[in-house]
């Protein structure tokens, strides 16, 4: 947890100011019982009203100073903790943004969300309480003990019997609470994952009448988290009654033995009252420490989870010295082999081919043959295990990720849109694109017709994830987003699957005209989409089993013939 303290360095001045204010607040609280003792023992006993008013005025002044320090310390600690949390969230976001897909697969999206929100909130609460309690409690504890001993050393022995018991209780609570807090955060991850799947998959859930099943899944995850939370709260609930019981016994002991001293004339009433106040301050400081001990185990678990993300080194990083080849758009695979972490078999093995500018290279194959994986290696979402992927004659690992991806226009298999307007989603591919460029990209992508049919045109709002658009409309906007940046290489990952055959044909014809100087790689399931390609690569179980044009492959590749035969039969039946 101390590793995260470095993010408080920009606010060191505020931390020092809080420490000074807390110190002044502690001094004021420790001084008040002494003034009260003087009023009782001198002013009230002698009946000196002027003395009472004079000392009472000093008490009011000290109390006002203490209140001002309390307000200032609370304000500064709240601002510091909020800024600390904001900085930490930004660091987490920047770190996660640099992760490759391997890191996402390893930690999980739901867990990353929990760590960026709930775990950082736990740290923020520790900072806001720690800046005051962690500073104030030792000051009050030490100062209270010093003042109590100076008031009456004999009565201080009653405190000596209680403090070790309190320390033992806090140690036991911390030891038992840490595993529970660790389990609680893991179960919170699970609950968030179930909830996220439910919200994102609500259409499928309703379509298959699986609402009751999803409710049971959520109930199980929620019940599991609740049971752990109950165990944690039950443990913490025991602490306060025990502390109150010890406090009351100690107060009773002080009153008993103090009363005997007063009766014997060895102690004045005012001193007894002051000693009780100091004892309460000592015990209050111990309560504050106990609260910190209650918070620390959970915060420690959260800190470890945050540090795990911040300390994780992305597998894919930019080279120390990057190359910047001429931008031509030549793409080449040389004996590429790749396996997903933990997989028994490679997803791709010994893949070699070359795609030239002005050519359309199509990749076709059965489900799980490695088509999308191949595109992921081009944009360097993953790195190859063996061989190399080359863009313009340079291994992609020798290019910066920004430079590599600026050469590529990717249309993913699942169309991803963002909340905003139609124009903003197309402009996502090129932030400085003009209105004419956006309209041209939409025209080529065959999206102009449905866009102009909207009341607000390119300013029409798109809901989160594009839920107010059809699948074909989302695909065409995704294609327009790639077209507007005018890259050297286009990667279209099954981007025509939601289009009817007429729109598919028009879009391919428009793309061929508009991308005549670029390298185009199309992953598709439909034979009609790939049969006009300059080069067709047939994948089967991660290997290239055929390479050539449509007519050549019909003669030379059995896998391709099977795909064509199955689809032509289906089309004829339709």
Can you put this structure into words, describing what you see?
The protein has 574 residues and is an alpha/beta fold. It has 2 domains: 2-310, Up-down Bundle (ABC transporter transmembrane region fold); 331-573, 3-Layer(aba) Sandwich (Rossmann fold). Helices cover 64% and strands 10% of the residues. The protein contains 18 helices and 12 strands. It has helices spanning 12-46, 49-97, 101-107, 109-151, 157-200, 202-207, 211-264, 269-310, 371-378, 401-406, 422-427, 435-444, 448-452, 471-483, 501-514, 527-530, 550-556, 558-573, and strands spanning 331-338, 348-355, 360-365, 386-391, 394-395, 408-411, 420-421, 461-462, 489-493, 519-523, 535-540, 543-548. The strands form 3 sheets. The chain has a 6-stranded mixed β-sheet, sandwiched between helices. β9 (489-493), α15 and β10 (519-523) form a beta-alpha-beta unit. α1 packs parallel to α4 (109-151) and α4 (109-151) runs antiparallel to α5. The radius of gyration is 35 Å and the shape is elongated. Residues 570-574 have low confidence and may be disordered.
């Amino acid at each position: 947890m101390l590793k995260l303290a470095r993010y408080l360095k920009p606010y060191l001045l505020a931390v020092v100011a809080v420490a000074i204010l807390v110190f002044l607040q502690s001094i004021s609280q420790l001084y008040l019982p002494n003034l009260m003792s003087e009023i009782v023992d001198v002013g009230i006993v002698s009946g000196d009203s002027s003395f009472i008013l004079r000392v009472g005025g000093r008490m009011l002044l000290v109390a006002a100073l203490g209140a001002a320090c309390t307000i200032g310390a609370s304000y500064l600690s709240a601002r510091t903790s909020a800024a600390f949390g904001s900085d930490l969230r930004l660091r987490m976001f920047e770190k996660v943004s640099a992760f490759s897909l391997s890191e996402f697969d390893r930690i999980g999206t739901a867990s990353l969300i929990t760590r960026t929100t709930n775990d950082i909130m736990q740290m923020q609460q520790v900072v806001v309480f720690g800046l005051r309690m962690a500073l104030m409690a030792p000051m009050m504890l030490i100062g209270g003990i010093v003042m109590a001993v100076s008031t009456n050393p004999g009565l201080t022995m009653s405190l000596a019997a209680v403090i070790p018991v309190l320390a033992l209780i806090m140690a036991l609570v911390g030891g038992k609470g840490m595993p529970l807090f660790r389990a609680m955060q893991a179960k919170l991850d699970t609950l968030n994952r179930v909830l996220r799947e439910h919200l994102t998959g609500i259409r499928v859930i309703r379509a298959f009448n699986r609402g009751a099943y999803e409710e049971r899944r959520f109930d199980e995850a929620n019940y599991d988290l609740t049971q752990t939370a109950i165990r944690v709260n039950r443990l913490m609930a025991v602490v306060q009654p025990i502390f109150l019981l010890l406090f009351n016994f100690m107060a009773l002991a002080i009153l008993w033995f103090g009363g005997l001293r007063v009766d014997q004339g060895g102690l004045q009433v005012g001193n007894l009252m002051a000693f009780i106040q100091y004892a309460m301050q000592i015990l209050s400081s111990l309560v504050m420490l106990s609260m910190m001990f209650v918070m620390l185990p959970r915060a420690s678990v959260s800190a470890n989870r945050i540090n795990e993300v911040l300390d994780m080194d992305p597998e894919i990083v930019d080279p120390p010295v990057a190359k910047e080849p001429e931008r031509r758009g030549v793409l080449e695979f040389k004996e590429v082999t790749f396996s997903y972490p933990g997989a028994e078999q490679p997803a791709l093995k010994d893949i070699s081919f070359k795609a030239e500018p002005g050519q359309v290279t199509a990749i076709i194959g059965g489900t799980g043959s490695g088509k999308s994986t191949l595109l992921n290696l081009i944009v360097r979402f993953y790195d190859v295990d063996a061989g190399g992927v080359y863009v313009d004659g340079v291994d992609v690992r020798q290019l910066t990720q920004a430079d590599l991806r600026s050469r590529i226009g990717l249309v993913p298999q699942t169309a991803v849109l963002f909340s905003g307007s139609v124009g903003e989603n197309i402009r996502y591919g090129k932030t400085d694109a003009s209105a004419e460029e956006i309209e041209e990209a939409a025209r080529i992508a065959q999206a102009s017709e449905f866009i102009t049919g909207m009341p607000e045109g390119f300013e029409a709002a798109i809901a989160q994830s594009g839920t107010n658009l059809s699948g074909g409309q989302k695909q065409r906007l995704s294609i327009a987003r790639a077209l507007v940046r005018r890259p050297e290489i286009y990667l279209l990952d099954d981007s025509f699957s939601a289009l009817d055959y007429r729109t598919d044909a028009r879009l391919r014809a428009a793309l061929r005209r508009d991308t005549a100087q670029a390298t185009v790689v199309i992953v598709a399931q439909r034979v009609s989409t790939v049969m006009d390609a300059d080069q067709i690569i047939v994948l089967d179980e991660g290997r290239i089993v055929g390479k050539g044009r449509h007519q050549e492959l019909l003669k030379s590749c059995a896998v391709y013939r099977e795909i064509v035969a199955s689809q032509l039969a289906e089309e004829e039946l339709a």
